[in-house]
Amino acid sequence: MDVASLHEAYAGLTPQARLIAFRAAVPGRIIFTTSFGIEDQMITHLIAEAQLDITLATLDTGRLFPETYALWAKTEARYGLKITPYAPQASGVEEYIRQYGINGFYASPEARKSCCNVRKIAPLARALGGAAGWITGLRADQSANRAGLAMVSEDARGLIKLNPLFDLTRADIADFCDAHDVPVNPLHDRGFLSIGCTPCTRALQPGEPERAGRWWWEDETKKECGLHIGADGRLTRGAEAGV
Length: 243
Hints:
alpha/beta, Rossmann fold, 7 helices
């Protein structure tokens, strides 16, 4: 499938029209992975409103905020749907803790990435198993590392990946959620603009970029967990990004 042609075809469409077109263009199972951030909540609303045949899933790392779990339940009730959880294997978590300690991810980038591998990458591989398409809530203006993000790309796993909100701003999404009564995480109002696991997420300081609160002890230019890796081993981008 020519991802560059899809990007061009979807460029002038609304996010919901992009989702509808993507569902029509990609045969087979399509999965949307939500972490219950404001972008993902907007996408969930659009999928539910259009009644699209798209599987909703989440990575339950076991160390999410209580507010995230509460929003998970609220979202299912609001839209009358079920979000499939994918959790890390107990044996993998146990081995990680034996090797690094319960909070060993603070010690080094390698230790942190190993934790992400156990709690996120391995469950994601199970979630995406057998899928043809993958939808995420990534936006190009979330960080410098995501500035060259494509709307449509090919993932290293061979999946066709759609980021339907890639060219929207956070303000655009917040306005949409306000207008449509979309449930959002209350942590956003407390300075947590990007929300992951409890020990690896903090509120932003004034003037910090949107993802500065994630893995804040690491180099700002390298703060990705490895979920969104393209065929070249870097963050998934498309032909229009020059890779």
